[in-house]
């Protein structure tokens, strides 16, 4: 399998090098919980490290360190020079990359791989909408520990399907797999209020090539994952439904208890054509239109309108990704597993994906309406 560039390999090297398997007493080490990596002005790497110090005699102390180096080992060594305790990565939970570093794609940094059993493959990766340094330097009263805050923020929004999951394991799998590209959630500093999400980063190989909104990530999840639970407002356009608020000029259906399943089928291997079949159901909580939700015919019209809206949004998402030649859906994986001896390469699939025909078939069903139960 051909590698898509060395950036994700560098990520892997970084994680393998940043810890140590030697047993250590907790009070004697500084625990690295979060790393931030940016492109420095001179072409080196600016590393920002969130260090947690454990002292039984006092409260936990969180320190943010900065250092520059041309190598991964250099970042770690230089950071150790600024810490009163030797740094260890057994509690590494999140790595944040600056946008400019990811725009470069191929960093050209090569390091010796060293096995590190202390780093979890469930470590979250994310991209900063700006610099990773700014994210890790956020100071707010409700964020005493930015490292723990970022982990909790990403974890609960991943579990709630607000954003797609991007753990080390998943990113490396998608990187090394021909026919699927990695994705990363994008973190954004929100004034003095803290940190939020501004979208999902798309990659072609190891290079950042575009982004989708957090709203669009819902439709991505419908394709690549099974949706369970959660709530979603879906805009529907139909002359059958007139919005209560004329200023909004649109009707919105609020759906919860979402349940979905998806299936991707290759229907033509000569000129790649796929069917994406999605079954979606949920409870209708509210509709911003004066209609009789007790009427079965009205429910059928709502189901039809929501089906049309979801289908259109997924089609728009796929079309955008095709212009960027980034297959975040895994259509190439399906092609490769369905066509024997395809000898598919990344470069070959980029071109094929751009021209592929994708038929989106959505079947939405209202389980029940919360307003008439």
Question: What can you see in these coordinates?
Answer:
The chain is α/β, with parallel strands linked by helices and about 375 residues long. The protein has two domains: about 5-210, no CATH class; about 220-370, 2-Layer Sandwich (GMP Synthetase, Chain A, domain 3), CATH 3.30.300. Helices cover about 30% and strands about 30% of the residues. It has ten helices and 13 strands. Strands 1, 2, 3, 4, 5, 6, 7, 8 and 9 form a nine-stranded mixed beta sheet that branches. Strands 10-11-12-13 form a four-stranded mixed beta sheet. Helix 7 (about 215-225) crosses helix 8 (about 295-325). The chain is globular and about 70 Å long. The relative contact order is 0.12. Residues about 105-115 have low confidence and may be disordered.
Topology (elements, then pairings):
Layout: H1 7-17, E1 29-39, E2 45-53, E3 61-69, H2 72-80, E4 86-88, E5 94-97, H3 99-104, E6 124-128, H4 132-136, H5 146-159, H6 168-176, E7 183-189, E8 195-204, E9 207-212, H7 214-224, E10 231-236, E11 251-268, E12 273-287, H8 296-324, H9 331-338, H10 346-355, E13 357-369
Parallel strand pairs: 1-4, 1-5, 5-6, 6-7, 12-13
Antiparallel strand pairs: 1-2, 2-3, 7-8, 8-9, 10-11, 11-12
Helix pairs in contact: 7-8
What would the average pLDDT be, to the nearest integer? 86
**Annotation field: number of helices:** 10
pLDDT under 50 segments (min length 5)? 107-115
Cα end-to-end separation: 54 Å
Q: Cα-atom Rg, whole angstroms?
A: 23 Å
Strand content: 25-35%
Instruction: Specify the helix fraction band.
Output: 25-40%
Largest sheet: 9 strands, mixed
Number of strands: 13
Class of secondary structure makeup: alpha/beta
